Amino acid sequence: MDLFEYQGKQYFARFGIPVSPGGVADTVDEAVAQAVRVGYPVVVKAQVQVGGRGKAGGIKLAKSTDEVRQHAQNILGMDIRGHVVHRLWIERASDIAHEYYASFTLDRGARLHLGMVSAKGGVEIEQVAAEDPGAIARLHIDPVKGLSEHDARHLVNEAHLDEKARSGAVEILLKLYRCFVEGDADLVEINPLVLTPDGRVHALDAKVSLDNNAEFRHPEWAEYRATEVLDEREKLARSKGLQYIGLSGSVGIIANGAGLAMSTLDVVNQVGGSPANFLDIGGGADASVMASALEVINTDANVRSIFVNIFGGITRGEEVANGIVQALQRVEIKAPIVIRIDGTNAEEGRAILKQHESDRLISQPTMLDAARKVVALAGAGTAEARR
Ligand code: GDP
Ligand code: MN
């Protein structure tokens, strides 16, 4: 679960990471009230969970009430790369001598934590990562041993931060690592971490992504759930208890079991298609869960064809086929469906589907055949689909 900047800063503050004083505002008047409380000059910051707010005009300096009013008016309701601004964070403006970058994340491949620090922080960090990766110092950390002060100092030295910033940065890195581990985050990122002209180091932005698996030991995360940004498809899926993740492609995916669902995404990609979602309907595949799954996929305007990929285990093929047929009687589907059933009693299942076969309901014997068919129906127009 991703946090908004203001929530991330509150999270940071719990671990003693210095942030600027500020407050949230949902209206222009609240923005002015917060600015008066915080003291001028202030920065008016759009709260959306997408990077590049500064470049998009969502971060503005204000020296007076008139300026706060004007910027708040412009930024509230602004669309930043598909995210509409409903909330602002008003904070005391900082003077900046240098902008750095610092983060901790999980390196799944290495099975270690990864710390990154750069002296080239700020709004161009993606470009730095692409064009000058050497400017980002990296350190793998054994999660059992944790981050020592020596490690943190090494990272800061490797990154060539200005001398004046080094001890402050080391202190922040140690706190940021504690925030990452004890705070159960997948990612904690400060960009920019700034050095002020009077020699203080603090966090000017906050990106925190919490590990959903740790939610059981964080009752206080309920307040973040309450403001979580879900798209309409994800909201509906959650209300129906489905394991669904929205993606941006045109092939709707329904599979039973997370592993099979992921393999289905892979095979669709492999034949040149693009999945519209991940959806795991779990072990069984009865009519009601299938109907719920189809309903969620139906709300996705990008979907042009649907791939139902079921492996019968305890649930037998004919039960799965009957479930699909019944679900189709309940839900009117906008896109054609390609079904692959395998596993226990697959033949019986396919025989049932055969009776209902049409150009809207197509059964295929293998996962690859089904993937080719569904991608062709989506009209992906790729080499593989044209074959
Ligand atoms: P992002 O564009 O979404 O990453 O938003 P940030 O919060 O990182 O702000 C973008 C940029 O705005 C920063 O890199 C700074 O250059 C600038 N900025 C943000 N806050 C302040 C501030 O308090 N004072 C000054 N002078 N610049 C700021
Ligand atoms: Mn930033």
Descriptive notes:
- The chain has 3 domains: 19-92, Dna Ligase, domain 1 (2-Layer Sandwich), CATH 3.30.1490; 98-221, 2-Layer Sandwich (D-amino Acid Aminotransferase, Chain A, domain 1); 232-382, 3-Layer(aba) Sandwich (Rossmann fold), CATH 3.40.50.
- Helices cover 38% and strands 24% of the residues.
- It is built from 14 helices and 18 strands.
- It has helices spanning 5-14, 28-38, 65-75, 125-131, 149-158, 163-182, 222-226, 232-239, 258-270, 287-298, 317-330, 346-355, 367-378, 383-386, and strands spanning 22-25, 42-46, 59-62, 79-80, 83-84, 88-92, 98-107, 112-118, 136-141, 185-195, 201-203, 207-210, 243-246, 251-255, 277-280, 305-312, 337-343, 361-363.
- The strands form 5 sheets. Strands 7, 8, 9, 10, 11 and 12 form a 6-stranded antiparallel β-sheet that branches. Strands 1-6-2-3 form a 4-stranded antiparallel β-sheet, with helices on one face.
- It binds guanosine-5'-diphosphate and manganese (II) ion.
- Manganese (II) ion is lined by residues 191, 205.
